[in-house]
Amino acid sequence: MPQPLNHLNESPSQTAGPYVHIGCTPNFSGITGLYAEDPGSVLVNDKTLGERITIRGSVFDGTDAALKDALVEIWQADAAGLYPSPPETRGQVDPNFGGWGRSPGDMDSGEFVFESIKPGQVPYPDGRLQAPHITFWIVARGINIGLHTRLYFEDEAEANATDPILARIEQRQRVSTLLAKPETPGTYRFDIRLQGADETIFFDM
Amino acid sequence: MTDDSESRGGYIQRDRSRHPPAYVSAYKTSVTRSPQKALLSFPTTLSEETGPVFGDSLIGPRDNDLLHNHASDDESAIGPRILVYGQVRDQSGRGLPNTLVEVWQANAGGRYRHQKETYLAPLDPNFGGCGRCLTDARGYYEFRSVMPGPYPWPNGVNDWRPSHIHFSLFGQSFAQRLITQMYFEGDPLIWKCPIVNTIPGRAAIEDLIAALDLNATIPMDTLAYRFDITLRGRRQTWFENRPEGL
Question: S-S: A73 plus which of A2, A137, B111, B212, CB 3.0-4.6 Å?
């Protein structure tokens, strides 16, 4: 027998269930007085640098119904492409930008909304620049393991054309599932489809 | 940094054979909520190797005391009193300090405090069912609560959830983000639950069963359960004198 490697196994995932909002956005779910505000509800303030954007979208199941019990989180770089996180060593991140957002979706429609800024470009490990993007993570009842994907901007066609992740997508018609569509100036729609011909590309990274 | 150190520092690929698949017919809600196309695989980039940092200022003094954080003065939640503690670590066994742990659960009768909850068991006016804390310098967390009750749920006509506590974990990067559930040693409902059984294999399920730890109980006060959680690790050798990594 060779020596044991002693690597631990990652703990298995379990669904977030129908009551994820109790633990993650208690004020939204009516449990008030515990937390001053629901974590991740604010990404920007008046001093945050960069182009203000609003992102709206819904998560659709295989019957084309919008989920009303999902929790959507985002993680993104600041306007200069820097992450507010210890592994970020390339510069001083905007102190007025948190980078992380969490939306329980509208109580009736399920639509999520994030008020943020357009992220700058972040390098790929080999030094090439990635197109501006926002990481999304979706959990809900019936989703057995959190789904990772990215939002790219449809109006960044030039940067998207050379993005190393988008370049890995074999079926090119599916790239559009990752593109947020401009609706009005500064407002983008990013719908997520769990199944069907327009199923969003989800990641295993 | 060189290309070599970059590629060595990425996260170990997730072993999906120990996670539930997206589609499990016996868990009916997963049927229309499970992606059907292949996931796009790529090595982690800075976008996944970074993640939000939460400070002590976020956490209130009673955030990890579910016995009291929703209770009137001099009252506490009803039910068997428990202390749950454990270590959040990565696959190298390295404790993850200052990482946010969020928990939520039903009350002792198996009832959640939620507007969409319809189970006939009563609410406990002194129990909210949510809490949070940051891990300490060695990755340990703890909170106090009541033992959550089992409850029936609409899936089959007679499916019951075992007693469980939901956990949301951040680790140090978005690649480590995980939501899971903790079960209690000895509960016979664990092995009959369609949600538990989305996990392939008994060994992986046992990773989510907390052990009764009589050495950690508070005499004449609460029972204790230990629940360690392992998040993804990095593709590099960990050196004790460089805890921050390469």
Answer: A137
- The residue-averaged pLDDT of A164-168 equals 97
Note the pLDDT tens digit of each residue in B40-77. Answer: 999 999 999 999 999 999 999 999 999 999 999 999 99
Q: Assess if residue B1 is contained within a domain.
A: no
Write down the domain spans for chain A: 20-193
Domain of B91? 52-231
Q: Which residue of A has its CA nearest to B178?
A: A13
User: B173 contacts in A (CB within 8 Å)?
Assistant: 85, 87
pTM of the model: 0.96
Question: B54 and chain A: CB distance < 8 Å anywhere?
Answer: yes
Q: What is the mean pLDDT of residues A142-151?
A: 98
Chain B residues 184-243 with CB within 8 Å of chain A: 195-196, 198-199, 204-205, 207-208, 229-233
The reply to whether B6 falls in a domain is: no
**A145 vs B20, B31, B50: nearest CB:** B20
State chain B's mean pLDDT as an integer: 93
B20, B32, B37 ranked by CB distance to A61: nearest:
B32
The nearest CA of chain B is from the CA of A184 a distance in Å of 27
Q: Give A50-90 pLDDT, tens digit per residue.
A: 999 999 999 999 999 999 999 999 999 999 999 999 888 89
Band (B7; pLDDT cuts 50, 70, 90): very low
Answer yes or no: is pLDDT of A188 > 90. yes
- pLDDT, residue A6, reads 87
Q: Is residue B13 part of a domain?
A: no
Q: Do B117 and A147 touch (CB under 8 A)?
A: no
Q: What single string gives the DSSP state of each residue in chain B?
A: --HHHHHHTSBPPP-GGGS--S--TTSGGGTTTS--SPPEE----HHHH------GGG--TTTTBTTTTTSPTT----S-EEEEEEEEEETT--B-TT-EEEEE---TTS--S-TT---SSPPPTT---EEEEE--TTSEEEEEEEPPPPEEESSSTTEEEPSEEEEEE-TTSGGG-EEEEEEETT-GGGGG-TTGGGSSSHHHHHTTEEEE-GGG-BTTTBEEEE--EEE--BSS---TT-TT--
B17-29 residue pLDDT tens: 999 999 999 999 9
The count of domains in chain B is 1
CATH of the domain at B220: 2.60.130.10
Give the CATH number of domain A20-193; options: 3.40.640.10, 3.40.50.2300, 3.20.20.70, 2.60.130.10: 2.60.130.10
